[in-house]
Specification:
The protein is an alpha+beta fold. It has two domains: about 80 residues, Arc Repressor Mutant, subunit A (Orthogonal Bundle), CATH 1.10.10; about 150 residues, no CATH class. The chain contains ten helices and ten strands. The two termini are about 35 Å apart.
């Protein structure tokens, strides 16, 4: 079997779409295909980028054109940004964040209102490890954090990182949340398209955010997808320096 046939077959088996990281794991399970390389991940990346049967849905996510209509997908550069596509984008990046911390062996949380949204072909509630927040602080602060898009917890059940995915709004609500939770020794990160970074930097200059300005970090979608792929690669390579 040719390598590109193995990738296409795997996409079909996964329902027509998959992350590059998922392909890296699943394609190599096909015994009829030989890769004859120490870096099959690079070959898989090249195949999804070059084969006409495959298109990019979002950073790190690829699909078969034959499933495009059935799945209601549009190509990344031509997205019409309908309400449905905005929600899918938002939950997709939430899913990447959850998967990264799951792979590292820690707990993850998503808000109740997002639990039934899809991450590729799974519900977010089936990807995150926590169904409710632990009582790690005063009730009012725990309640305030309950709407954060993704929270990573350490092994002491304390929040390690707060993430807000800003796909369609103007950053201010997310920055207000971070401001209210500033007393925690926790990383605070905005996840958004690189094209929105200037808007983010503008809002961060508001005087009301003086206390958190040096703490907030910006992570773009492409970098997030690459970090997810790196975590998958680490789990399949054994010892990593």
């Amino acid at each position: 079997m040719k390598q590109y046939d193995a990738v296409i077959q795997t996409l079909e088996r996964l329902g027509g779409q998959a992350t590059l990281a998922q392909l890296n794991v699943e394609v190599l399970k096909i015994k009829d295909c030989e890769w004859k390389t120490k870096t099959p991940f690079a070959s898989i990346r090249r195949i999804v980028q070059e084969r006409p049967e495959i298109f990019k849905v979002r950073p790190g996510l690829w699909a078969l054109r034959s499933y495009q209509k059935e799945l209601g997908l549009s190509e990344y550069q031509n997205s019409n940004q309908t309400l449905e596509s905005l929600e899918q984008n938002h939950s997709y990046y939430q899913g990447l964040l959850i998967e990264i911390d799951n792979l590292r062996g820690f707990d993850t949380f998503v808000p109740h209102q997002d639990k039934n949204k899809l991450f590729v072909y799974k519900l977010l509630k089936d990807v995150s490890s926590m169904s409710k927040l632990p009582p790690y602080s005063h009730d009012s602060l725990v309640k305030r954090s309950s709407t954060i898009d993704v929270i990573w917890f350490n092994n002491r059940q304390m929040p390690n990182s707060f993430f807000e995915v800003e796909h369609s709004t103007d950053f201010q609500n997310s920055l207000n949340k971070f401001n209210d939770l500033q007393d925690f020794y926790t990383r605070v990160i905005i996840v958004a398209d690189e094209n929105k970074k200037a808007e983010y930097l503008h809002k961060l200059q508001f005087r009301s955010f003086d206390e958190i300005r040096q703490r907030v970090n910006f992570l773009n979608y492409e970098t997030l997808a690459k970090q997810y792929e790196y975590e998958i690669m680490k789990t399949n390579q054994g010892f990593v320096l």
